[in-house]
Design a protein that fits this description.
It is a single chain. This protein is of the alpha+beta class and 296 residues long. It contains nine helices and seven strands. It has helices at residues 2-16, 21-41, 46-68, 116-127, 140-143, 147-153, 221-241, 252-272, 279-293, and strands spanning 81-82, 100-103, 110-115, 159-165, 176-185, 195-202, 205-212. A hairpin with a 2-residue loop joins strand 6 and strand 7. Helix 2 (21-41) packs antiparallel against helix 3 and helix 7 (221-241) packs antiparallel against helix 8 (252-272). The radius of gyration is 23 Å and the shape is globular. The N and C termini lie far apart (54 Å).
Length: 296
């Protein structure tokens, strides 16, 4: 009897500390990153590193598929591909949110799905960043309100710049829902190809949808004139600074003018776009995405 009890206690103890599928995923991901980093340090041929990277990503995709199961959102595929584009820190697409991306093509709507646990771990790692541009809060709700979250979580080669937040109605059953209009850019100034980005947290799932704005966001003359004036002032300041001995500060007045013009332009759009005839359709697009992800 004592032997049986000892075995039962040992089994119970082992079950208590057994790794979860998410733990196994994180361990496999971190090992793959470490292996690739070691190969880079050893000057391993890039072809060998790329092959290992692809193999590891396929393994992680399979693990995530088992964790997340099939997606069930109308007009989106049921199976996804890894949201992380590379495990090589030297590559674009490294360090993105752990999850699967579901899309019919590269340009159309997409959904990135993750779990609360994986998202919280990812945010914890981002909260430890020393550079302010990469630092994120650990709270999911707070992170979803930041452009920088979308830049790092679902973007790979451009930054997300928000135009306005939609007055979204939280779908029934959802714990959180947030929607933003904005665009991807590698520069400062107006973004004319805007996207609707909608995030829903429901139970253990974190879903982030992105779709081209439909209808297209119109140009608003008053806002365009704000940017045009700022751009002209910046270029004038830049020309005045040409040949300056203070090379490090030569572009400061120009950059300040561009940055203020960009902020003023987006503030103008946020103020005036809700009165434009296109806005109800844009709001409906965001609400439909949120309702669909919440299973409404």
């Amino acid at each position: 009897m004592r032997l049986v009890l000892t075995l039962l206690i040992a089994l119970a103890g082992g079950a208590a500390v057994a790794a979860s599928p998410e733990d196994d995923y994180i361990a496999a991901r971190d090992k793959a990153i470490a292996d690739i980093t070691a190969q880079e340090s050893a000057n391993t041929p890039i072809e060998t590193i790329d092959a290992q990277n692809e193999k590891a990503l396929a393994d992680l995709q399979q693990r995530l598929t088992a964790i997340l199961g099939p997606l069930s959102v109308k007009d989106f595929p049921t199976t996804g591909t890894s949201n992380i584009q590379s495990l090589n820190a030297s590559d674009i697409g490294y360090g993105m949110l752990d999850g699967l991306r579901y899309a019919q093509n590269d340009e159309g709507p997409s959904i990135v799905a993750s779990t609360r646990g994986l998202t919280e771990r990812w945010l914890k790692s981002k909260s430890a960043e020393t550079e302010a541009d990469f630092k994120l809060p650990t709270d999911i709700g707070a992170a979803l309100k930041l452009d920088n979250f979308y830049t790092q979580a679902i973007g790979s080669d451009a930054a997300f710049s928000g135009t306005l937040d939609f007055p979204l109605k939280k779908p029934e059953g959802a714990d959180m829902a947030f929607a933003r209009l904005g665009g991807w850019t590698q520069d400062i100034g107006p973004i004319y190809e805007q996207r609707v980005v909608v995030s829903v947290v429901k139970g253990d799932r974190v879903l982030i949808a992105e779709a081209p704005a439909s209808p297209a966001v119109p140009k608003i003359a008053q806002c365009d004139s704000i940017w045009a004036a700022a751009d002209a002032a910046a270029q004038k300041a830049q020309q005045a600074d040409q040949g300056s001995d203070e090379e490090s500060s030569a572009s400061d007045p120009a950059n300040a003018a561009w940055e203020k013009g960009d902020a003023d332009y987006r503030a103008c759009m946020a103020q005036r776009l809700p009165d434009d005839p296109s806005f109800p359709a844009l709001l409906k697009q965001a609400q439909d995405l949120a309702d669909g992800m919440a299973g409404k």
